[in-house]
Amino acid sequence: MLIKIANKMKKGVWISVASLVFLIIFSGFWVFHSEDDHQKKWSETVKPNAVNAVIGDESFRAVYDKEPTAATSEQKRIVTHLKYVRKKLLHRDVGYLSKRKRQLRRKNLNRLKDYIQRGEFPKNKAFSNRRPNFIDSKGRICAVGYLVEQSLGRRAAEALNEKFQYEYVLEMESPKLRKWATENGFTTRELAMIQPSYGDDGWGVGPEENKNKMSRTIEYGILGVNVGLSAVNGYLGIKKSGSVIPATAGIALGASTITMGLTDKTRYSTADFITGGLSVAVGSWAMYSIFNKKSSSNNLTVAPVPSSRFNGNMGISINYRF
To answer: Residue 126's closest CA among 217, 29, 200?
Structure first.
């Protein structure tokens, strides 16, 4: 009877653990996915074939007094937009900026003029609608990328491209880009005004597989599993019923996640470090608890016992519990 009750209790504990794991993994996925959902909703407010996410086709209407059509050349739309935005930014009152920042702002707007005159713009082959493309497959760099390249070098621009190739500036979680904008007298919104969305010709081309979306989904899953394993190992550790399998998995996955964050190719590096470190720490604690429990249960007992074989003399009994 007692054995049946114990088995039922164990079953109840594991059902509770399984439910907790599911809840935490789902919560972790939701937490790390919620920000992207917010950005996605912002992106969905952008007119699909507008040349810019902030001001749309305002430039074309201002210059030609009409909307662009499918017959409008890609080159004409990009050049019209960049010239229009550059002029607006040149005439903005920036007296609140320091002299140094005003000088850098002017210098970068002059660089933008050179970029426009050069006339080499990226093409978008990844989306059916217009979309930013930081650096395309042929090495053609976008307007914002060009400004960064001229200030910080090509490698800095390529690092941004590795993480945010098709992202709108207002979606980019890049402290480096925000710092560069501030130091050079721009707001993030002003950079977003500069950034064109690109097509191939006219309205763009057929879609290709979006690898960024897939890698992002995988990262969400890894982060969620890290949180889940940390919860499982913590729960089992508190209950003093830890298992080597989840503890080992937590340590291994946590270490891998930290390494993944160090590559600078992931979207949520900070989250990688936090969840990976947590998983390693809790997994290590669980592993320590397991072996500490085993070592405390292994004991050597030496005790005197009567022995009839030796005429009533005493002997010893040695017992070792594994």
So the answer is: 200
